[in-house]
Amino acid sequence: MEEDRLEEERQEKEEARRRKEEDMKKKGKRKGLGGLSPEKKKMLKKLIMQKAAEDLRNEAKKRAEEKDTYINERVEPLSIDGLSQRDLRLLVQKLQKHYEKLEEEVYDWEIKIREKETEINDLTVKVNDTKGKFMKPVLRKVNKTESKFAKLERKEHRDFRGNLKSTGQNKYKLEEEETSKTPDWRQTLKGKEEGEESAPAES
């Protein structure tokens, strides 16, 4: 009897422990964004968008300030008050030389950037080849006018005699008549040889 009672108590404790664990699990579950209502979700989304827009504005402002400071450091302030005609001409020449120098630098940097881009493309192709991934080539769109021009060129290359109507006459007829009119010297030679052979036979 005592053993049965102990077994029942143990089972009750086990069930109580299970219920407690299930309750803790249910309380620990969260629905959506922490169980927020649709209004709160909309408000939270609005606040996030406002914060992102503000960050973008601050970043653009910071970039503009950095650009201004860089330009002010590189370019000296221009003061033309009280300068004579000769000094103004010298200043313009100096600015022109500076501008040409900057243009050369821009050109050099553009060439360097292109070289780096081609190098990057070559390396990516090599990496893809080693991995076994092949880049799909960009397909060129065929223009309809090009195909029409190709057809016209093919027509032009055809033999124009094929388009002519046949007259029913042989085009080699004139040549045959001329050849028939000319005497054949072989027959004359054969006649002479036959005459010579017959003469000694008679004698």
Describe the structure using short key phrases:
203 residues; 6 helices; Troponin_sf; Troponin I; Troponin
Topology pattern, helix = H, strand = E: HHHHHH
* Distance linking N and C termini: 168 Å
Give the helix tally: 6
Query: Ranges with pLDDT <50 over ≥5 residues?
Result: none
Structural class: mainly alpha
DSSP helix fraction = over 70%
State the shape: flat
Strand content: under 5%
On the 0 to 100 scale, the average pLDDT is: 76
Main beta-sheet strand count, sense and barrel state = none
Rg over CA atoms, rounded to whole Å, is 52 Å
Counted beta strands: 0
Region (Disordered): 1-42, 153-203
Biased composition (Basic and acidic residues): 7-25, 153-162
Protein name: Troponin I
Biased composition (Acidic residues): 194-203
Could you walk me through the main structural features you see in this protein, from its secondary elements to its overall organization?
It comes from Patella caerulea (Rayed Mediterranean limpet). It holds the Pfam family Troponin. Residues 1-42, 153-203 are annotated as: Disordered. The protein has 203 residues and is mainly alpha-helical. The protein has helices spanning 2-28, 38-74, 85-131, 144-157, 173-181, 185-202. It contains six helices and no strands. The longest helix is centred in the middle third of the chain and has 47 residues, at 85-131. Among the domains are: 35-75; 83-131. Helix content is 75%, strand content 0%.
